[in-house]
Amino acid sequence: MKLPPVLRLVVRNFTSNLDVITVLIRFGQPAITIVVLGTMFTTIVSSSVTGGASYTAFLVPGMVAFQMITGGIVSGNLFWLDRRWAMTEQIFSGPFLRSEYLGGLVLTTLLFSLVGVGVMILVGVPFIGLPALSPAAVGMVLATVALGSVFFAGLLIALGSRLRSANAYFSIQSFLQLFVIFLSTVYYPVTSKTPRVLAAIFYVNPLTYAANTIRDAFANSFSGSDFVALGVLALLASMAFGAAIWGFRTLELGPIQ
Amino acid sequence: MASGGVVLETQDLGYSFAPGRFAIRHLSLGLGRGEVLGLLGRNGAGKTTTVRLLTTLLPPTEGTAIVLGQDIRTGGRALRSRLGVVLQAESLDFVTVERNLTLYAFMWGVARETAKARAEEMIALFELESARHRKPWALSGGERRRFQVARELMHDMEILFLDEPTVGLDAVARRRILRYLRDRARGGLSIVFTTHILHEADLLCDRIAVLHLGRLLALDTAESLKQLHGGAREVSMTFGRPLSPELRLDLGRELGQRGAELLEPPEALASAANWLGFRAERAEELLPWLTQWSQARSLPLDRLSVEEATLEGAFLGMIGDTAEDGDGRTPGEPSPADRLPPGRSGEVP
Q1: Rounded distance, CA B45 to CA B41, Å?
Q2: Within the 179-238 window of chain B, which residues sit less than 8 Å (CB to CB) from chain A?
Q3: What is the mean pLDDT of chain A?
Q4: Residue B347: its pLDDT value, please?
Q5: CATH topology of domain B232-306
Q6: Judged by CB atoms within 8 Å, which residues 87-116 of B form the interface with A?
Q7: Domain presence at residue A255
Q8: Is the pLDDT of residue B3 over 50?
Q9: Which of A156, B208, B215, B258 is the most exposed place for a label (fewest CB within 10 A)?
């Protein structure tokens, strides 16, 4: 049976670009963070700072939110490498539409992110137990990670469609990753003692919305702000995806380095 | 051409990368089923742009092109699924050669068993057995190129576009690939082939389109191009007995009147010798006259040899061998495609 073109591209993406080492590092890094950082900080961070939960219980939802960056980076890098090795051009000269290639990248991102969500929850089980998520909470987590993944994938694909230098692309990608993670509530909450400027930056960062929403989902305690956050994420994801479409429509094929 | 039927036809096709700056212009040519068409030209002549246009990777900015009955502007996926394209750039996936082949076939929707059988066939045909389990970065340049051609042949197609497929290949591999392509063309596959190696274009192509500065200069068979544009060739004559200085001077003068240039200085003609050589455009047209001249003087002509016309000679004759590198353009300079007169358009066979 012949799979639809998008699915054939997804299979190709996973087969050709995701080797074992890459997968281990992409999932291993946040997993190690949960194990090591969670264990160590639980002993020194007061639970009053983390809303009554242990630091590990605070961190696991943060690492779940982190998966949207992981997924975004995977497809952003995949796209850039495809450009670098002329596979974008080769695929475009075959029985595929550009929209299918873009769809394949987004689907790859989503699958990678959602597998990452499962891995992070499993890594957290020995420390905080299996979270008792209601179906609505599961839906909230998946929707948040999916929208966040599309946002980061769209952003990096748009970036990758413009840049012709590996150094520039990977430097910007690393900086963006660092900036987004450390200026979000993945590792620490915004409290009354957080400097105002930093707090303001935290709240324009989509990862903050995602981390807070996922924490609320883990606690099965939604509020209106979570739905607002989801709406903001949907808006940002649409904008980033629009930027990726623009990048594809104006993509110049040919050698890059 | 192996069999009838037009599979590709362009009319005044052009691509402008900026207003008034054309990479290719007024391209009118055709390709028949089972025909091999060579695109020759210097770097920047417009060969790769032409391939990109015809494979829908670039939208034309003027003119029309009908490929397999479909307009390249609207053919899209339906058209591309009937084409094969070997790009000039190395295009690779990060898996072993064998996996690359089957993965590519999978992407094209080739059934698993067919893909496995074809992969074996291609590995054998393109001598990739030792590279079967290696990843692309561990391959030599020639292996990568062979692999890239092999990979494209994993799926069915009606027209195959090959953009410099033999770059970096040794003579044996090149010959093997050319022979295979020739066989496929006999089987009905139409091929558009760009190369800088004129000898292989001569061997493989039914017709050759010469592009220069974004324009089609000529479209004809290699033989016709050689005859029409082969330039001056050397002719060497050895007579059965020495010619007197008078006869040699007479022959030299007559040849000079017919546009030939003697290979030895005029003063050398003043001595008796049984040999005389000259260079002339369309040298073969002088041969009947030479025979008559020698017969009229009862001079036995033991040996008469004409330097073989080469495609390279014809190519250089057409584009000029003193042209600048590439297209002679500096970045930002307007494309020269507009400065040339319209090229000699090819008839659709």
Answers
A1: 5
A2: none
A3: 91
A4: 38
A5: Alpha-Beta Plaits (3.30.70)
A6: 87, 89-95, 99-100, 103, 106-109
A7: no
A8: no
A9: B258
Our count of domains for chain A comes to: 1
Query: Is A184's pLDDT higher than 80?
Result: yes
In 3D space, the residue among A77, A54, A241, A42 whose CA is nearest the CA of residue A160 turns out to be A77
**Position A152 in a domain:** yes
Q: Considering the domain boundaries, does residue A55 fall inside one? A: yes
Burial class (CB within 10 angstroms; exposed 0-12, middle 13-18, buried 19+) of A127: middle
Across the interface, whether the CB atoms of B108 and A94 are under 8 A apart is answered: yes
Which chain B residues are within 8 Å of A85, Cβ to Cβ? 90-93
* Any domain includes A256: no
CATH superfamily of B6-82+157-228+324-338: P-loop containing nucleotide triphosphate hydrolases (3.40.50.300)
Instruction: Read off the pLDDT of residues A113-148 as tens digits, 9 standing for 90 and up.
Output: 999 999 999 999 999 888 888 999 999 999 999 999
* Extents of the domains making up chain B: 6-82+157-228+324-338, 232-306
pLDDT digits (tens, 9 = 90+) for B113-122: 999 999 999 9
**Is the confidence at residue B327, as pLDDT, over 60?**
no
- Closest to A161 in 3D by CA, of A69, A76, A72: A76
ipTM of the complex: 0.87
Question: Chain B closest CA to A96's CA: distance in Å?
Answer: 6
Q: How close, in Å, is residue A199 to chain B by CA atoms?
A: 43
